[in-house]
Structure prediction request, 146 residues.
Amino acid sequence: MQSSLEILQSEFDQLQRQFPSAQLPPNCSVLMKGKYIDYDSRVMLKILFPVLEEYLNPMKAMQGGFVTAAFDNVFGPLSYLAARTPCTTLDLHTNYIRSINAGDTLVVTARVVSRGLSAMHLSAEAVNGKRKLIATCTSHMVPIKS
Prediction:
């Protein structure tokens, strides 16, 4: 039986063959050093991001833009996998609950809430290493018709 990460890799491989010019993972995800940790085919994706010094604001907490970028770096591949085609983001709404500091890990779990022919709705939560809620986020994505 395949693990969730083996299924994820297999689905990425299929998409790479279908869209050979797509870079998986994209540079923005590589930059944030995301590590895939769980996947439920076309429904849920969980990625861990280290909280690095270069992501910190003057108060030594992860800047909100980097927290939102982490969400976007999970919504992007999940929408691509769910729609089986590249998608574009219509909106991204982040709610910040508490700060997260250098040396911690931000774990983002995103889910497809609804998927239609013309759009999908996704939601996610981010927790720290102690599983305390850091932020929540929602997004609407639209499959790009080729």
